[in-house]
Design goal:
850 residues, mainly alpha, 4-stranded mixed sheet, transmembrane helix, Chlor_Arch_YYY domain-containing protein, membrane
Length: 850
């Protein structure tokens, strides 16, 4: 476990060094981005190492090079600290509780998953070989782009940047890839948790500050970040710990059956032909796929979009600050968002789109009115610059990458999600979000009491007292005006104007006219909503399989409408925006799917639902955590006029709270049952399944003692040979090992050493390179490789064997138990007659071309 603490300490140092930059970039957030400093520090280090390596392939990807970049960044950070240390120290003192909480959450979540991984750290089964192979091959590659461990002579044609990010940290710490696999998944778990906590706390704290400005009009030194703790913790709980209701349904249905064993995999396969992974499942599985590793950085992008959304008055590039800092902040924003594509291409459109929407609304508010040429020009220029820069910064990746995407398709009517399935996946989220929508509609938005917040009362010739009318309650009564007031009617609502001078009635009439326009817009909105609902009913009648799509779109539309209704409180509006994006994603998956290698079968939507539902879960987790604050706040300020109404309100709140508590408890079934089922062991010495702490995070350690039936043979011989290869073979020479089908034990040498081999797991290579294989030459080369591996192990002519190896620049041949099982009739000892034996022990022989 000491390696886990090493990883934690390194990330802590990177976060500390990145604090000045974080304070500059996240200047609009209450915590100035304190919670995001670790994620930003990791991203900046990774980019500053990757950028020169990919543009200058002759540069070595070595520990010394990474240390050099680290020291340069440390020097720059030291200079920035000299300028900002007072500001940083003041922020730390004022929000000490928040700062300490961030550190406790980060370390605690890393240790939580680390303790589970220590029960069974094995890199075995599922697709762990693939992900470990990426980390190992990246760490072993002397230059960039990194090698593909299963297609010698080619670079990785996959979204490898998140794997590379971990590999860079591991190289700096000198951790082996098999250890970095486990310390890395724990690091990403902790990083995701602290970013979730930071976004939610900043939303709630910003809303509290808004209420303070509206109601008190006096500065308050109280830290609203501390008040936001429960909601930040709730976001972490919902996002990373709780499961879905499908797990609860499984337990409720089968727990009384004799010998019931919880199927911890089942809740991630609710909708036929698709995958609906959620973070608790993914991290419990220790899925090292791109969508999991990128989760922490997508949450960071949500924080960046929030920072843009909260910018009070910046027009155009002033959105990012003043002076040269605006260009630095734009650059950092482009680095973070642009990196999402080469980490996981599915995430980039969603979070770039979210950021652009946030910028568009902010620009509209800053310019006023929205539909004017300057607004479109300034906002459009910022948006285009951000998109272009995010692409150009990672241009070498695009030049070396052939996307497996084959376009966008329309989902067949036979493959849609049912409402019941969606409820099993998102039941808790839907309940909280519906509660948020209802309470938002009943809530009376807080408005500034004066035309301009910066104008004093003595400078205002009249004060407009407009009742804060909820969306569903119009025509509120106001007492008749006193002699110094004038009262007007504006579309069913009373407007009372306190007139300082009789001559100012003209100005008052203008305000009343504006109020009438407001209510006219409300009537237009409700008329449009009614037409939309009617249209939904028509669609459902004609196309009943679009039920989920229509329901999700209706929730998204209501959220967008209420967003503009609550826009005075931008943090509140942003929460609604996150929910709208999430349900738009869910609706979109019912209509469109991204064509890939699975497009022609029943699993046409598999990857689309897989990747986009994972995003929706993250968005709804923040929306639910922060949304609960707004729900409770709305209930607190909900006005009732009679004792009976107050009792009714208490009853409704009590029932609502009971349902919420029940749903949270139901969602706890998954973490309580799945953890034991995932890591339990069974052997002849114990009558029942048990847990055992291995006291290691080395994912390769199990090879030293794995026997049949858990492994297909005694792997202890491979364990020693692989350790020898890692200790004695430098660089990236090609090694020949037996090829096999996906999800098996084939490829174990290339996986645990990072040495490229001719071909392995061909099914996965096809998934990554489906469009690359459209080239006849590439297709011919790919198809020949398995034949050539067989030829090397079985052909009796040494010259033919050596010529085949030379075609791929292969220098080593590995002969172990798996090779003997694959080629039982071949003479696998003949290689010693024309090659040098560099290793021979325990039934494994490694030959090298002389």
């Amino acid at each position: 476990m000491s390696e886990l603490l090493q990883m934690w300490m390194l990330v802590e140092v990177l976060g500390l060094l990145c604090l000045p930059l974080t304070f500059t970039v996240f200047r609009n957030l209450p915590d100035r981005g304190w919670a995001f400093s670790k994620a930003l520090g990791v991203i900046i280090l990774a980019f500053c190492v990757w950028f020169p390596l990919i543009y200058l392939p002759s540069l070595p990807y070595s520990q010394l090079f990474v240390i050099g970049i680290f020291l340069i960044l440390a020097a720059c950070s030291g200079f920035a600290f000299m300028l900002l240390w007072r500001e940083i120290l003041q922020q730390a003192r004022r929000h000490l509780g928040y700062v300490v909480s961030c550190e406790v959450i980060f370390l605690g979540m890393m240790l939580l998953l680390g303790s589970l991984r220590a029960l069974r750290p094995d890199i075995h089964n599922f697709e762990m070989f693939m992900d470990e192979g990426f980390v190992a091959s990246i760490m072993r590659s002397p230059h960039f782009p990194p090698n593909d461990m299963w297609l010698a002579g080619h670079s990785i044609n996959y979204y490898y940047y998140a794997h590379y990010t971990l590999a860079t940290l591991a190289k700096l710490l000198n951790q082996s890839p098999s250890v970095a696999f486990n310390t890395g998944i724990c690091f990403f778990y902790g990083l995701t948790a602290i970013n979730l906590f930071g976004v939610t706390c900043n939303i709630v704290a910003s809303s509290c500050q808004h209420r303070q400005r509206i109601e008190d009009q006096t500065p308050d030194e109280k830290s609203y970040l501390e008040l936001a703790f429960p909601y930040g913790l709730l976001s972490i709980l919902i996002a990373l710990v709780l499961g879905n209701l499908a797990a609860t349904q499984q337990w409720w249905t089968h727990h009384a059956e004799p010998g019931f064993i919880f199927d911890w995999f089942g809740p991630s396969r609710v909708i036929d032909g698709t995958i609906n992974e959620f973070p608790a499942f993914s991290f419990l599985l220790s899925c090292f796929h791109a969508h999991v590793l990128t989760l922490a950085f997508t949450i960071l992008c949500i924080g960046l979009a929030l920072n843009c959304f909260l910018e009070p008055s910046g027009k155009g590039f002033a959105l990012f600050g003043t002076g040269w800092l605006r260009y630095l902040n734009l650059l950092v924003t482009a680095i973070v968002i642009g990196g999402l594509f080469i980490m996981n291409g599915w995430d980039y459109p969603t979070y770039m789109g979210l950021t652009l929407v946030a910028i568009g609304i902010q620009q509209g508010l800053a310019h006023q009115p929205w539909l004017r040429l300057s607004t479109l020009l300034n906002g459009g220029l910022v948006a285009i610059s951000l998109v272009v820069l995010s692409y150009v910064l990672y241009l070498p990746f695009y030049l070396n990458f052939i996307s497996p995407s084959q376009g966008i398709g329309i989902a067949s009517s036979n493959y849609h999600s049912s409402i019941s399935g969606e409820m099993l996946i998102y039941g808790l989220f839907i309940f909280i979000f519906l509660s948020l929508l209802v309470s938002s509609a009943l809530h009376r938005p807080l408005r500034h009491p004066s035309p301009t917040a910066s104008t004093s009362d003595s400078q205002i010739p009249f004060i407009v007292d407009v009742p804060r009318t909820p969306l569903f309650a119009v025509g509120q009564h106001i007492e008749p005006a006193s002699p110094v007031y004038a009262e007007y009617q504006a579309e069913g609502a009373s407007v009372r104007v306190a007139v300082a001078e009789v001559e100012d009635h003209v100005e008052a009439e203008k305000i009343v006219t504006a109020q009438r326009l407001k209510w006219r817009r409300l009537r237009i909105f409700w008329s449009s909503l009614a037409l939309f609902l009617v249209g939904c009913l028509v669609v459902l009648y004609l196309f009943p399989y679009y039920t989920t799509c229509v329901a999700a779109l209706a929730l998204a539309l209501l959220s967008v409408s209420l967003l503009f209704y609550q826009l005075e409180n931008r943090a509140y509006a942003y929460t609604l925006l996150l929910g709208a994006v999430a349900f738009t994603i869910i609706a979109g998956c019912e209509i469109f799917f991204l064509k890939d290698v699975f497009s022609d079968g029943t699993a046409q939507r598999m990857n689309t639902v897989f990747k986009f539902y994972f995003q929706a879960w993250a968005l709804l987790s923040i929306c639910s955590g922060a949304g609960l604050y707004f729900i409770l706040d709305n209930l607190r300020y909900l006005q009732v006029s009679t004792q009976k109404a107050r009792w009714i309100r208490r009853g409704v709140v009590g029932v609502w709270g009971s349902i919420l508590a029940l749903l949270i408890l139901a969602s706890m079934v998954y973490p309580l049952l799945a953890s034991f089922t995932r890591y339990q062991r069974v052997d002849s010495t114990h009558p029942r399944p048990f847990l055992m702490n291995t006291r290691t995070l080395d994912g390769m350690a199990y090879l030293a003692h794995c026997q049949v039936p858990e492994c297909i043979y005694d792997t202890s011989t491979d364990y020693e040979a692989i350790r020898w290869l890692n200790a004695h073979v430098s660089g990236d020479p090609v090694i020949v090992e037996a090829s096999g089908q996906d999800y098996g034990y084939a490829g174990r040498v290339s996986v645990f050493t990072g040495l490229p081999t001719l071909i392995n797991w061909p099914g996965h290579e096809v998934q990554w390179r489906i469009n690359w294989a459209n080239d006849p030459a590439n297709r011919a080369d790919f198809g020949r490789r398995s034949v050539d591996v067989d030829k090397i192990y079985t052909h009796r002519d040494p010259g033919e064997v050596l010529a085949t190896m030379q075609r791929y620049n292969a220098q080593y041949i590995y002969v172990g138990s798996f090779e003997h099982k694959t080629y039982p009739d071949a003479d696998l000892q003949r290689f010693g007659k024309f090659m040098a034996i560099v290793y021979q022990a325990h039934g494994v022989t490694i030959y090298k071309v002389a």
